[in-house]
């Protein structure tokens, strides 16, 4: 089973132009993401990775850090469309493609491996994505972050078989009797989505041919197009220590939080 990690890295972000080139403790966000892809594919003859962008500045930086980069049209509406456009320029067509966003520099490599493993064990799966059940501490932190950046952080509803039922930029589900639940349970009932996807390549093609969905437009979440069109999304549960969850970096405020988090991790390690 041929596997590929694609890193869409768009320069022209509305909320944060040039985001992939922004530095976190002296190292670009894109380089940190490329390092993750390099770690997970090193020595695996059936796996590889590439960056895809619409901008020559990002292409030049990708080459500086030793990453293959494919230029795709600025008109690509989503990262998934950009990946498909890149794949169509390549000689090798993978069975599984993982969309590792260029703004997720703290993604643990083992999460990507868990996506690959899920497809190996269940080749009929269409889409696989990771979620993390939030501790009460992390739920409180997510709520606080949303006071200043309300569209950072995505939550998910998952059924008892691990299939995703819905995603939202709001915190779902609502918790009617939270005080009692906090006394009974160590973890909240809220799952935070970790923003990367594994596609079967035929499903990626199918998805990209679909028109944007109603709720996708409302929430700004491309995965809702899949749900609206009966593409099944299975989840893998990420085991992340309390306090370590980190959503994608969408704004300069998120970047400041990421810088602070990295400094904290470095202090713990020293």
Q: How would you describe the overall organization of this protein?
A:
With 270 residues, the chain is of the alpha/beta class. The protein has a single domain, classed as Spore Coat Polysaccharide Biosynthesis Protein SpsA, Chain A (Alpha-Beta Complex), CATH 3.90.550.10. The chain is built from 10 helices and 12 strands. Strands 1, 4, 5, 6, 7, 8, 9, 10, 11 and 12 form a 10-stranded mixed β-sheet that branches. β4, α2 and β5 form a beta-alpha-beta unit. The longest helix has 18 residues. It is globular. The mean pLDDT is 91.
Return residue spans where pLDDT drops below 50 for at least 5 consecutive residues. none
| Anisotropy-based shape | globular
CATH homologous superfamily placement: Spore Coat Polysaccharide Biosynthesis Protein SpsA, Chain A
DSSP strand (E) fraction?
15-25%
Query: On the 0-100 scale, what is the average pLDDT?
Result: 91
Total helical segments: 10
Topology order in helix (H) and strand (E) letters? EEEHEHEHEHEHEEHEEHHHEH
What top-tier CATH class fits best?
Alpha Beta
Using the CA coordinates, give the radius of gyration: 18 Å
């Amino acid at each position: 089973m041929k596997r590929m990690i694609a890193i869409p890295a768009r320069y022209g972000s509305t909320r944060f132009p040039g985001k992939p080139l922004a530095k976190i403790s002296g190292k670009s966000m894109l380089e940190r993401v490329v390092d993750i892809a390099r770690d997970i594919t090193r020595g695996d003859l059936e796996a590889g990775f590439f960056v895809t962008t619409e901008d020559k500045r990002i292409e030049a930086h990708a080459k500086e850090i030793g990453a293959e980069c494919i230029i795709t049209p600025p008109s690509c509406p989503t990262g998934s469309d950009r990946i498909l456009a890149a794949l169509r320029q390549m000689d090798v067509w993978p069975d599984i493609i993982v969309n590792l966003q260029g703004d997720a520099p703290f993604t643990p490599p083992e999460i990507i491996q868990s996506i690959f493993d899920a497809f190996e064990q269940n080749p009929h799966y269409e889409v696989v994505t990771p979620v993390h059940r939030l501790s009460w501490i992390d739920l409180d932190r997510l709520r606080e972050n949303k006071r200043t950046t309300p569209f950072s952080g995505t939550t998910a509803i998952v059924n008892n078989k691990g299939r995703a039922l819905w995603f939202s930029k709001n915190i779902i589900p609502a918790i009617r009797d939270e005080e009692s639940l906090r006394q009974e349970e160590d973890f909240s009932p809220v799952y935070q989505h970790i923003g990367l996807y594994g596609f079967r390549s035929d499903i990626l093609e199918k998805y990209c041919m679909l028109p944007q969905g109603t709720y996708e437009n409302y929430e700004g979440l491309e995965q809702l197009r899949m749900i609206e069109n009966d593409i099944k999304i299975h989840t893998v549960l990420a085991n992340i220590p309390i306090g370590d969850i980190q959503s994608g970096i969408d704004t300069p405020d998120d970047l400041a939080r990421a810088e602070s988090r990295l400094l904290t991790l470095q202090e713990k390690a020293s």
